[in-house]
Every structure is written in C-alpha cells, then in structure tokens.
Amino acid sequence: MQKIAVLTSGGDAPGMNACIRAIVLTAEHFGIQVIGYKHGYNGLLEQEYQVLKASNVSNIIQRGGTILRSARCLNFKSDVSAKLAAKNLNALGIEALLVIGGDGSFHGVCHLGAHWQGQVIGLPGTIDNDIFGTDATIGYFTAIETALESIDKVRDTADAFERIFLVEVMGRHAGFIGLSAALASASDHVLVPELCGDLNVELDNIVLRLNASMQKRGNSSFIIIVAENLWPGGVTNLAQVLHEKTNLECRPVILGHVQRGGSPVSQDRILATKLGAYAVEQAMAGESQIMVGEQNNKVVAYPIELTWQQRKPLDPYLVKIQQDFFDISKITQA
Ligand code: F6P
What we know:
334 residues; alpha/beta; Rossmann fold; seven-stranded mixed sheet; four-stranded parallel sheet; 41% helix; elongated
C-alpha cells in the first residue's frame, strides 16, 4: 500500500486531531503517504487536500477541533457526487479512505464504497457516543468533562439561591452525555430521549420529585439535565412551564457548542490514537466497509452498515441508579 487519505466530517469532536496524528505517524512508519482532504466530503468533491507528514501533525494532540476542518455535506448523498469522489480519489492514486465522523459520515462511507473500488474505513468521532459497535466514540469523554465543569458552577449559584436550574446538553438523538453528566454532577433529574415518554407525564414526574426533595431536604437547589431537542421550546420553555406549575424560581442554561470544543481529555487522546493506528493496519490488511472501534478495551473491526442499524443502548445499570436508586421520591423512610 502506498497512499491513503483521511478526512474529518460532521460535528467536530475533541480528539479528531489526535486521531489524524496517529494515522499519519502509523502510515509514515509503514512508508505510506497520507493525503488529508479538507472540509469533510466537500474537499473530496473539490479536490481540496494537503499532503500530511509528521511535521504537519506535531503539537496537535492537545488541540480541539480538526486541522482538516469539518463540514456536513448534504449533496454527498447523490450518486453523481459519489462518482465524482471516486474519480478524484483515483486521480490521486489513493487506495483507502479513512473517515473520522459520526453516523451521518458513516452513511457517506458506505455510499462511496458502492461507487469506488478502493477501501473505505470509518473511525467513530462524535461527542454523542451514539455509534453501535464501539463502547465509546472519540470526543465523548471530553464533552462530559466540559458539561460537568459548567454544571458544577451552575450548582454553586443554584445552591446559593435555592433555585431550580434546567441545563440543556447536546445529543439530539442520544442521552449518553445527558445521563453521564447527570450522574457525575449529582443532578437531581435527567430527561433524555431514551428515557422520555409522554412529556406531560415527565412534567408530573419532575413536580413529584421536586416536592419530595423539598419535603426531605427543605428548600435546596434542584438541577435537571435536559437533552437538546427533547422539550418543545427547549429549557427556556420548560423553565417557564415549571415555574407556572410550582411557583418556584426556575432558570434555563444552554451549554450548546461549548461541549464540542476544548482540549481532549486523556481517554479521548488514547482512544483516538488507538483507533487511528488500527485503521491504518486494517487498511494494510485489505479491509473495507468497516468501522474501527473499541469493545472491552480491545480494538475491533465492525461492519460499518451495522453501526446505525441498531440503537446503542444506555448502560442499564447507570439508568437504574439515576432513575431508581437516586430518585428522592422513591426513597423509603428508615
Ligand atoms: O456532532 C454532534 C452534535 O454536536 C450534536 O450533539 C448536535 O445535535 C449537533 O451536532 C449540532 O450540529 P450543528 O453544529 O451542525 O448545529
């Protein structure tokens, strides 16, 4: 194998740079040249690329974002785009394309694979952790830390005023950040897509917990973690609704894209490094249409089309602790 390419696509995630670095250093070790396409799949369509050498990836392991830039490329879904990408890859003599991204980007990997005879490999890079077949995705651990840092601060002012705070975290379709951040910040309640049914029932449940909390702890702070896109009108609306129902002071906080930035924590750097190196090895072994991931601390190659066909479940034991053991309205009196 002489030449491979890499791109980062979709929502950027802390650790993408660490992953690019691992790919470049591993490839150089084996005498393989690496092309870095810019701006996700757009770069592939427009032949916007740079040659990546060890010197291009020094001093980036600690940086958030991605040196290759990222984008969501909606028109990559068309056959015309995939054929153009295949032509461009062939023109540069590329044998394998490595894509670091989330499930949308993985659909792109498969789509390209159907139109190009080269090898395609996905590496899971998204703060959402919503990719089946890998225990964690690159960026997820840092996003939890970033959310936590803010929630801890919110707790200080919430305590001082004995107020209710509703903190909105990212994860449109998955509650991994929400559940982990709630548990690690000792938040009182969590609303994430996997655990939410009828919103009126959820609202009654929050009020029940709030009342139980006030009965047992007196006036105190009460923090609710809410996944984005879950409540119509978001936490701003929910704070209003809750205030009308309880007459208590409720404040919304939206963490937003802050969760995507920052220096990756060690777990993300190590995961990114492991998966980057392994992806190059898998490319050299002739593998294609796979995602490289990690299961029980071991690197694995997993069929890429299976990564979105099943919904990755939240850890049921963490759910039980948060929803059952720590539900103040369910605590039995000693
Ligand atoms: O990359 C995942 C993610 O950060 C989601 O958590 C969030 O819903 C989405 O991307 C936001 O996308 P955009 O940056 O395009 O608004």
